[in-house]
Design a protein that fits this description.
CATH class of the largest domain: Alpha Beta
Helix content: 40-55%
CATH topology of the largest domain: Heat Shock Protein 90
Largest sheet: 5 strands, antiparallel
Mean pLDDT: 83
Number of domains: 4
Strand content: 15-25%
Strand order of the largest sheet: 2-1-5-4-3
Length: about 400
């Protein structure tokens, strides 16, 4: 552009030189002297304009390139031509790795199959922009993050033809996590109030029914009239009472009484107690304990309940034969407890649901659907986390992380 201006200026100077010569009759040397002064003035003006424009452009360029939000420019073939430092930090890709690539490498496969790429393109083509669209994107390491996307079309100087588009992506993963935790706490508080009221209302009538049925059953022998009916009443009221006890425990606040605990010893106790639950099933429980596992401050009874729930769930997942591995290992600032099985696994569409209160994939009368909710609640109160890995037909692994301090 600058070279074109210099060339055009030289051409205009020659035309002006000849015009002055014809109109004034001045010698070429004098005309050249005058035009030289004009050159100096024009040069100074051009420098001022250029410096001003460069400073202006650099100002906005720095804003774009150094923004903490990811700013991604796409050409009309939806290939990346702009990838700022915010995009590098957010997704883990360097600029050189993505230039010229189509943007769909950032979209999770499941969203691509649902037509998200086409939706984004069509929305901007139709409206010229897309504002605060919330979705998920993939990082270089395979991690999925929540993002808010705003995207707008870029037009030529005449504001007629599109020459590409720019997307601004903001990482909202932490916001989404906090919103989810807040909803869960609100739901738990509401559930606790309702459950507590219902449990107390049902507890006394159930005790009366169960007590009377037990009394009548004392005078009946197996095979006699009403024996089976009375036994069913006792069994069912016992089951309901047990469920109500679980509901009441779930609705109460957790008060952790932490003390230094050796998790290997606790895991050994759980294995010793749960072997009676195996019954006639051919299930082997293997130990893989880290001998260097440090003692950590936890509520012993609560963590025992966590491990017990996971082991019992694994046992109940088997119909006959199976293997369960209870493993402990130490990290730099955490310890990990893993409960793995080679059972039927958990379908992907159910994996998000199993931690919800009252959700159960077991048959009628085999659970309240609170086991994993309680596990998650206890571990969260200990500033830890629960992770699930499962594949249908190959088994399931629950990993509990607990901080050392």
């Amino acid at each position: 552009m600058e070279q074109m201006m210099i060339s055009e200026l030289s051409r205009q100077k020659e035309l002006l030189k000849e015009k002055i010569r014809r109109n004034t009759g001045l010698e070429y040397s004098k005309i050249d002297s005058i035009l030289g002064d004009v050159d100096i003035c024009l040069g100074s003006m051009m420098k001022l304009l250029k410096d001003g424009k460069s400073a202006h452009e650099k100002f906005f360029s720095d804003i774009i390139l150094n923004s903490i939000d990811a700013i991604i420019g796409l050409d009309n073939n939806y290939r990346v031509f702009l990838w700022n430092k915010g995009a590098e930090a957010m997704f883990g890709y360097k600029k050189e790795e993505v230039m010229g690539r189509e943007f769909d490498f950032l979209i999770p496969e499941i969203l691509l199959s649902k037509g998200e790429k086409k939706f984004l393109i069509d929305e901007v083509n139709r409206n010229g922009f897309l504002a605060n669209y919330e979705s998920e994107r993939l990082k270089k390491n395979g991690e999925t993050i929540n993002v808010s996307i705003s995207r707008f079309a870029i037009y030529d100087e005449n504001n007629i033809s599109s020459i590409g588009s720019v997307g601004i992506l903001r990482d909202i993963t932490t916001v989404k996590k906090l919103q989810k935790e807040l909803r869960e706490k609100e739901n738990l508080a509401l559930i606790g109030e309702v459950v507590s009221s219902i449990a107390h209302s049902l507890s006394n009538p159930l005790n009366i029914i169960s007590g009377n049925a037990d009394y009548l059953l004392l005078n009946r022998k197996p095979g006699e009239a009403d024996h089976e009916e009375l036994k069913t009443i006792v069994d069912e009221t016992t089951r309901i009472t047990k469920s109500l006890r679980g509901l009441l425990n779930f609705s109460r606040p957790l008060n952790a009484e932490k003390a230094k605990t050796q998790i290997n010893e606790l895991a050994e106790e759980v294995i010793s107690k749960t072997r009676f639950i195996i019954g006639n099933k051919n299930i082997v429980i293997k130990r893989q304990f880290d001998k260097n596992l440090p003692v950590i401050p936890v509520d012993r009874a609560q963590i025992e309940e966590v491990i017990t729930n996971l082991v019992v769930n694994a046992i109940q997942a088997f119909t006959a034969n199976g293997e369960i591995i209870l493993k402990t290992r130490a990290g730099s600032s955490d310890i990990f407890i893993e409960v793995s099985d080679n059972g039927p696994g958990i379908p992907k569409e159910l994996q998000e649901k199993i931690f919800r209160p009252f959700y159960s994939s077991k048959g009628y009368g085999k659970g309240t659907g609170l086991g994993l909710s309680i596990v998650k609640r206890i571990v969260s109160e200990h500033d830890g986390s629960v992770k699930l890995r499962s594949q249908t037909g190959k088994g399931t692994t629950f990993t509990i992380r607990l901080p050392v301090k």
